[in-house]
Every structure is written in C-alpha cells, then in structure tokens.
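Reviewers of the previous submission asked for a worked example of the structure-prediction workflow described in the proposal, so we include one complete record here. The input consisted solely of the amino acid sequence. No template or homolog information was supplied to the procedure at any stage.
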Amino acid sequence: MTSKSSASPAAVSPARPRILVVDDELSMREMLRIVLRRDGYEVVLAENGTQAIAALKGEPVDLLLSDIRLPDLSGVEVLRTAKELNPEIVAFMMTAFASTDTAVEAMRLGAVDYFTKPFSMDELRLKVRQHFESHRLKQENVLLKRALISRNEFSNIIGLSEPMQQVFATIRMVATTNSTVLVGGESGTGKELVARAIHFNSLRRDRPFVAVNCGAVPETLLESELFGHLRGAFTGADSTKKGLMEVAEGGTIFLDEIGEMTQAMQVKLLRVLQDRRFRRLGGTEEVQADIRIITATNQDLPRLVDEGKFREDLFYRINVLSIQLPALRDRVEDIPLLAEHFRAHFASQMGKDVRTISAGAMELLQRHTWRGNVRELQNAIERAVALEQTAAILPETLPEEIRTPRDRATRGLATELPEHHGAMPASIGAALPALAEGFDLEARGEDFYRHYMAQALERAGGVQVRAAELLGMSFRSFRYYAKKFNLR
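From that input alone, the workflow returned the following structure tokens.
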C-alpha cells in the first residue's frame, strides 16, 4: 500500500507578498517580473483588464501595479474592482500619457502613487519596499496590541475566592454584549480594572478605552472634557478640542464616580445613551457616538434617586447590566495572593531583594478589616517593601494601624492567641475575668501573650528560638511580640 507524501506544516515557507502587474506591453511586464521577483515578491502578470480582474478574484493580491491604458478596460476600472474585492489592497498606477483627470480619479479610488513612463525602476522598487515595510510594522503593532490586550484581560484582577469567581463569570458574559454596565463596590475594590477587563474581552478591544473620574473633574470643565468644545465657546477656549467621547469612538468610555455628576450633566449623558449623539460645547452640529458606556460608583444610587439627587431615568439607562464587587474583608482567602502579587511588583520596581512575606506579617494582613480594600493593601505592601531591610516583609514594617488594629477586637480572643487544638482548658477559662462594662479585649489579649511568652522564655533559658517552638509560633512572630512587650 502506497501513501502520498505531504509537506510538514513546519516545512512550509512563509507566504511572500503577491504583486499583480497589469500592462499590455510584454517587455514591461517581463522587466517588472524579473525586478520584483529578484526583490523576493511573488509576481502575477496580466496583459489586460479582464485578465487582471480574473486574477484578483482568483487569489489574494497584496499590491496592484497597473497601467492606466489597457486594450479592453482602463486601469482605473481595474483599481475600482480591486478595491471592491479587497479594500486593503495597495495600488500603484503607471501611464505613458499623464493626465490630471486620471491621476485624480486613481488617487480618489485609493491609489497610493502614480508613475509616468519611463520611470526609474529603482524608484518603483523603493516605493514598493517602503509599502511592505510599513505593512509589516502595522502587523507587528497589531500583534503587540493583542499581546497587551491579553495581559489586560484578567491578570490584574486577582482572586480565587467564590465571590471573585462569580465576578469573572459575569465579566465574560457581559463583555460579549454592547450593553451599558454599572459596576458597584466600595472604594478601592478595583472597579476600573473590571471595566478594562470588560472592554478587552469585547469586540471593541482594538478601539480606545477612555477612563474619566467624574468626581475629580470640576463641574465647569466636565462638559468640555466629555463632549469637547469649539474655539471661543468660553473664555480660554483658544482652539477647538475633541472631547473624550470622540476620543473613545468605536471603543469604551468608563465614567467612574457617576454619582458625583451634576443634574445638568446627567441630562446630557442621558441623551447620549438614548440617541447615541451629542453636541460639542458652543456648537450646533451633532456628533455620532459609537461608544460603549461603563459606569461605576461606590454610592447607593437608588437612595440618591429617592433623595432626588440622581435622575431615575438615567439610573435605569446605566443599570442595564450590573456587577457588584465584594469588599476585601469578604474574601480574606484572596489576601495572600494579592499581597504576594504586590510584593513581587514593588520589589521589582524598587530593585529590592524582598522575596517573601513572613508568617507573622501575613497573619496581620489577614486579620485587618481593610476599609480601603485592595488599594489600601497595595499601599501597605508598597510601604513595607520600601522600608524592609531583610529578605522578608516583617510585621514591624507594616503600617501601625495593621500591627495594632482597634477593629480586631470583634473577631474574638482566639485570633489573638497562639494556635491551639480543641477547647480552651477549663483552668484557663476559669482564670479569665468576666465580661463587664469597659472591658478591653485587646489589652487582655496582650496580657495573655505576655504571660505565656515570659513563661516560655524562662523555660527555654532565654533562647527565643526555643521559646517560639514551645508556643508553636514562628520565630519572627515571637521576636516581634517580644520586642513589643519588652521581654528579655
């Protein structure tokens, strides 16, 4: 039994750019074929317009090089057909009879250059090479942009917890639509990261993503910032300026802190959402707005609606799809992942050899309430990396409010104690004071630590490593508390 041999995919050489040469003079066709093939291009020849159109319909052509005067059709007609078949095709026109009308028509249809015979072959080769070099750079740009897009998809949103998995699933679902999205959540939970993830997973990913903080732009400037203005629209408007709505054309505009927007601006935004058009400040012409709008807020918009501070009709327009981000205290299991991510980032940025986070420091990070959420955690780790002089972030380099937090008391005395198994011994429970008015749980917890750490040190003969082992603590945690309680 015989088998047909087939070329391995790895053995197939990359496709060369294909050029279609159209000219009724045999000598010109042959000369161009020799010269262009020598430069590494694949060359297809046609002696008239009919053959040229057949070639264009047969296989993809990257560049058209056509004479204007052909025996059956004109080169302009060939160009017109070529553009209909492939709007991206590049065309160079040739003629021995220069005519302003034909040149203008060819340029109007998209020809990039016009050669009058006899022309310099070297000049033509240079122009062709420049085109393909430009095309290659554009392709590399697209690939780079796609690589950057892939990095912006979910890599900056970190979390393995169930609440975050639900967020990821919702992002994937809403990204495929063109509907308006409202992202809610406390300050610092990552609302802009979610908006970016939606954009970079949508069909608009190759178009701009523009973020605007409505609370950071003065009320008098927000309209100009969003919609642009004409020269002379107001004092200081020395030139016409595009607004961010125009900059985001075809892409996504993210309006953060939408609850801070004034009633007057709410009306204008409502019109954009309803009619997909707006007017520049000082202008009468309407501008189309092919954009997706994503909004975010840390405020209770329904309450603002009830209070008359936010338009009800606008609320329903922006709340077509919604994503609610969980607070960091509601996904404590994600804190180690986030903290390690920020540690690696800032250690690299600052050129510091901070390779890990100590167990004691991580324990404190997981106990903190994080009213500022992920942003507060990021700032804490940046500070710790900047101050740390060892290879690990230690408790003492964390901010004071994390080392001795007042909000920790509500979590119970058990979180203040060294790890133990089973119920607390009855003898210890009996020795503990009763709960009464003015009870200071944090101080009692410190007394408990101080008492048993002092006993452990005495039993270990003052050797801190051994004392830490007796208590089941890490040495760094023991050293931190020993220093805090002034134990020797």
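The domain at 412-418+440-488 is CATH 1.10.10 (Arc Repressor Mutant, subunit A). We consider this example representative of the routine output the project will generate in years two and three.
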